[in-house]
Design brief:
Length: 271
């Protein structure tokens, strides 16, 4: 396959547990490696979109709060503070690699409404055309679906959000960077003997039953929301891979189709 043929539009979603330390403070090593790898993938000819979580945890730490706020308005305020801090650091790191980035904050209404969705899709196209890397998060300060209930309604969580973005942008590949190597046949935190699944071609009831909740106070949704994302991506003809954000360099192999993490194979790739 030539490089031109292999040029892909890749959406990478990174979870709070990869971007922050247990204290909630930013994991600068992780962010720096993420940015460097994305800049490199772009340099290789791929188009890259980043969906980044972390705003609430980072805001909570920056405000010096002893725990993640329970009151909705306080969580939304923490998100506003954290989002700003994260964009500052992302922009600084992307600038070091001579890349431009843009912030896109979305709510469920933005993708549900056809006119807004079209504007959004046009904005993504224009940014990618100019070589800018869009960095997306849910607009937590105005949208309460996920942070209030912990479940997704319209968008709800960034796993689902990233799949919706992948669909909207007609991406070839969605990669979810998590704190775990992929989907296991049970949650390894409670079942140490659990085995990693390398490939999923169909979301059967057995697969859906394997998914448990979040692994730490910073994560949201756990595997359940990742499987919802897989459904959206697969139906849109986009492969999705869950892999460990501790090994950013795996992104190169994943882009080449190597067997890393758990790959949810879309009909488009299978046929
Ligand atoms: N079947 C499963 N396979 C792998 N991880 C699982 C499974 N069920 C639940 N989990 C949990 O999902 C967590 C990852 O999701 P989450 O905590 O939301 O992190 P992230 O910030 O990466 O989205 C893992 O740490 C793990 O404890
Ligand atoms: N939008 C929220 C994160 C929501 C979310 O899905 O978090 P995660 O499970 O860490 O990807 C934030 O920026 O804090």
């Amino acid at each position: 396959m030539t490089l031109e043929q292999n040029k892909q539009r890749i959406v990478v979603k990174v979870g709070t547990s990869t971007l922050t330390h247990n204290s909630g403070a930013l994991d600068l090593w992780s962010m720096e490696h993420l940015v460097r790898t994305l800049a490199d993938l772009q340099g290789m000819g791929h188009e890259v979109i980043l969906v980044s979580s972390g705003a609430i945890a980072v805001g909570t730490a920056k405000l010096g709060l002893s725990e993640r706020p329970k009151e909705l308005r306080m969580k939304q305020a923490a998100a506003a503070v954290g989002q700003c801090r994260m964009m500052h650091i992302y922009d600084k790191f992307f600038s070091e690699y001579n890349r431009s980035m843009a912030q896109i904050l979305l709510t469920g209404d933005d993708v549900e409404d056809p006119e807004r969705a079209e504007h959004l899709s046009n904005t993504f196209s224009a940014l990618l055309e100019m070589g800018v890397i869009p960095v997306v998060n849910e607009n937590d300060s105005v949208s309460s679906a996920e942070i209030e209930t912990g479940r997704h309604k319209v968008l709800g969580d960034n796993d689902t959000l990233s799949a919706i973005v992948a669909e909207l942008c007609r991406a070839d590949l969605l990669v979810l960077l998590s704190d775990i190597d992929g989907l296991y046949d049970a949650d390894p935190k409670t079942h140490p003997e659990a085995k990693l699944l390398h490939q999923v071609t169909e979301l059967t009831p057995e697969i859906l039953e394997m998914a448990g909740g979040a692994g730490s106070w910073r994560g949201t949704g756990g595997m359940a929301t990742k499987l919802s994302a897989a459904r959206i991506a697969m139906e849109a003809g986009c492969d999705m891979v869950i892999t460990n954000g501790r090994r950013m360099e795996d992104l190169y192999g994943i882009a080449e189709g190597k067997d890393i993490g758990t790959r949810f194979v879309s009909g488009k790739t299978r046929n």
